[in-house]
Write a structure and sequence with these properties.
The protein folds into two domains: about 170 residues, MutS, DNA mismatch repair protein, Chain A, domain 3; about 220 residues, Rossmann fold (3-Layer(aba) Sandwich), CATH 3.40.50. Strand 7, helix 13 and strand 8 form a beta-alpha-beta unit. Helix content is about 45%, strand content about 15%. It contains 16 helices and twelve strands. This is MutS-like protein.
Length: about 425
């Protein structure tokens, strides 16, 4: 299975995980019932897919479970008992840490009950109605039907075990067949994640993505919005080889960064095979996704913000030079330098990006004057987020339009906030 290339900068830009008091995108999808499910979901978030078949297979499984309104079939208390029992580790001296007789009895009984529940789920649960899970269902059925586990199914699902039986089952579960027991738990965690994400898709009316072959250079999003916003404004954008670069302009507070996060987050989540906050998502499978929205100064190497930007562009250039198909986003490219250098650098780099037809790029900028030179490239499209003025009060539509805007309302906002008066006359009590 191939995985999408990305990095910590992108994961941080998209706010995939919670930080301090801010929730992450992960938290929206995390409706899991088990700790193992939580950890598996996090692993999926950190390792999106770069394989069309794998993406569509996972999306199909989750969509089928969503249609069935599937519920997780295993009790959290039972799973806690099994996890605690199976994870009883060796002590520092390499010796097996001792478990009490009652703990061993409870653990062995819990596994027997769980294995009965798994068999029942495989035979009569929702998994039997999901074609995409046929392989997992067959593999798990084969595992449970192994002769080594016959004693388990001769017992009742909640047995009263003798001391001798407890001892025999303890050796079976924690020594002889421990790998099988761990495989059963992994299967349960996988179902936990799929059912959790399916429930989120139903609750939030998310759409399932359609993955296109790698190299086809297309992203089509209709009605995409940021899932963390309570009253989001949806937007649509189409990119392909004939418009592989989007140059985005708009005043401060017009919503550029929010749109950029909405679009790139949807594309990232789509590569996981998860449903996304949009009405339609079709995309070419990429080799990697790299965003640059909040780029910190690299004080560790004495780098200014501008030099950190240069290094980031260099990193992306190296990946593109290796022939990879990427989605690349730069919010306010070269904001860390003077206007003249930012203008020249933005034009030069955007022109170079336009020559990479198998990759897709979005560049936002306040350097609207660069637009005239960028129009020389036919595959650069221009979009902006407008500002409507009501007297001296700016009104933001947050709705993407085609073209370039030279809206600049920084001084209007400064005056509206009374900053100059405060500096001149002092703060009024």
């Amino acid at each position: 299975m191939k995985f999408l290339q990305t990095d910590d900068q992108t994961i941080g830009d998209l706010r995939l995980f919670s930080k301090k008091e801010q929730r992450g995108i992960y938290d929206i999808y995390n409706n899991t019932a088990t700790r193992g499910g939580e950890l598996l979901l996090e692993k999926m978030f950190r390792n999106p897919l770069s394989d069309q078949d794998a993406i569509m297979e996972r999306a199909g499984i989750i969509a089928s479970l969503a249609k069935l309104n599937a519920a997780f079939s295993f009790g959290s208390g039972l799973l806690d008992s099994v996890e605690k029992y199976l994870s009883h580790h060796e002590n520092k001296d390499g010796q097996k840490a001792t478990m009490g007789e009652k703990e061993i009895s409870n653990g062995a009984t819990a596994i027997i009950e769980l294995l009965h529940a798994v068999r029942h789920y495989l035979e009569q649960g929702d998994i039997a109605k999901v074609e995409g899970l046929t392989r997992e269902r067959i593999a798990m059925t084969k595992l449970l039907n192994d002769p080594a586990l016959e004693p388990v199914f001769r017992e009742k699902s909640q047995p009263k075990l003798s001391y001798a039986a407890v001892t025999a089952f303890d050796i079976l579960f924690r020594v002889k067949e421990k790998n099988r027991m761990l495989a059963v738990m992994d299967f349960i965690y996988q179902m936990d994640v799929f059912i959790s994400v399916a429930a989120v898709s139903v609750k939030r009316d998310f759409v399932f993505p359609v993955a296109k072959p790698k190299g086809s250079s297309v992203v089509k999003m209709e009605g995409v919005y940021h899932p963390e916003l309570s009253h989001p404004v949806a937007n649509s954008l189409y990119m392909d080889g004939s418009r592989s670069v989007v140059f985005l302009t708009g005043a401060n507070m017009a919503g550029k960064s929010t749109f950029l996060r909405s679009f790139s987050t949807a594309l990232y989540i789509a590569h996981m095979g998860f449903p996304v906050a949009a009405k339609l998502v079709e995309f070419s499978v990429m080799d990697g996704i790299y965003t640059t929205i909040n780029l910190p100064d690299n004080l560790g190497i004495g780098a200014s913000h501008f030099y950190a930007e240069v290094l980031r562009v260099k990193q992306v250039a190296a990946e593109l030079g290796a022939g990879k198909s990427l989605f690349v986003l730069f919010d306010e490219l070269f904001r860390g330098t003077n206007v003249k250098d930012a203008h020249e650098g933005t034009v030069a780099i955007t022109h170079a990006f336009a020559g990479k037809k198998t990759s897709l790029f979005i560049i936002s900028s306040h350097i609207v004057e660069a637009g005239d030179e960028l129009k020389q490239k036919k595959n650069i499209a221009f979009h902006y987020l407008p500002t409507k003025m009501s007297g001296t009060v700016p009104d933001y539509t947050y709705t993407l339009e085609e073209g370039i805007t030279d809206d600049r309302h920084g001084m209007i906002i400064i005056r509206n906030e009374g900053i100059l008066e405060t500096l001149k006359n002092g703060k009024k009590e």
